[in-house]
Write a structure and sequence with these properties.
Oligomer: single chain
Shape: globular
Low-confidence stretches: none
Helix content: 40-55%
Mean pLDDT: 91
Number of domains: 1
Strand order of the largest sheet: 1-2-3
Radius of gyration: 18 Å
Number of strands: 5
Largest sheet: 3 strands, parallel
Number of helices: 11
């Protein structure tokens, strides 16, 4: 969608996004094309993403705290209820037509309890639990994680990706997927990218070792713009599972407990998100 609309689907533009999906499906039907999957790239509105990504780790924390405060406001709670209903209706309609939905999401929402009020979904204005998407696909981009956690480094970010994938699998089972990359920049243009195919192979090995096999790669145009694109595709498709070091995995499993807010602590979010 347009930048003014928030670009990515979120709580702020659910109805506009659903209309866009309907237009695309109508166009495809008129062209005689069969649509089997609709990808829903659930992310905070563009202006929020610029705040989250634009000022390094310190600015990221400030932007998250700002969003926590805003998520408790009455108008935001009302908007979440509306967006949840709109997305759930779209998902039900697509499912009845035999169309799979593939929801890509930012990693923190994986920490929400699947049956409780979703604190991080509310903070980041993304609907993950309630619509019942066919697949849930966190964007486990280790280059971005390492930049947002500068004291950790890429190896620690890879262990975090492994732990997040394992947590998703425990809650979502066969609905679990993961997006890896970045091979090239996206909408924000300044995202840190992986340096070489070997780094991508390490990411694939870590996530597959967590048990997630349905993988997506961002992005094909990034691959085609790099030297030896075949090497990137081989790293993505032919790498065997290999877990990161045990100590790093254990540290992240313990650390993420602080982000796993139990449902009883989210009384300011009475609606199911």
């Amino acid at each position: 969608m347009s930048d003014a609309q928030g670009y990515w689907p979120s709580d702020e533009n659910a109805e506009a996004f659903v209309r866009r999906v309907q237009d695309v499906l109508t166009f495809a039907a008129a062209a005689g094309a069969t649509v089997r999957t609709v990808v829903v790239d659930l992310e905070p509105p563009l202006a929020v993403m610029h705040k989250l990504m634009g000022a390094g780790a310190e600015g990221h924390v400030g932007a998250v705290l700002e969003r926590v405060k805003l998520a408790c406001r009455t108008e935001e709670r009302r908007g979440r209820r509306s967006a949840a209903r709109v997305f759930a209706e779209m998902q039900a309609n697509l499912h009845s037509r035999g169309i799979e939905t593939f929801a890509t999401v930012i990693p923190p929402v994986v920490l929400d309890h699947p049956r409780g009020p979703g604190l991080w979904q509310a903070v980041f204005q993304t609907q993950v639990n309630r619509p019942g998407w066919s697949k849930i696909c966190p964007m486990l981009y280790t280059s971005v994680m390492a930049e947002l956690l500068p004291a950790q480094g890429i190896e620690s970010a890879r262990a975090l990706a492994h732990v997040m994938a394992a947590r998703l699998l425990a809650h979502a089972g066969r609905r679990s997927a993961s997006a890896l990359g970045l091979t090239g920049t996206g909408k924000l243009e300044g995202e840190p990218v992986l340096p070489d195919p070997a780094a991508l192979a390490d990411d694939v090995a870590a996530v597959r070792a967590a048990g997630v096999e349905d993988l997506a790669l961002f992005s094909l145009e990034g691959v085609l713009a790099r030297e030896q694109p075949e090497a990137w595709l081989e790293a993505f498709t032919r790498t065997e599972p290999r877990a990161p070091p045990w100590l790093a995995r254990a540290a992240w499993r313990a650390g993420l407990i602080w982000g796993q807010v139990p449902p009883w602590m989210t009384r300011m979010l009475p609606e199911q998100v």
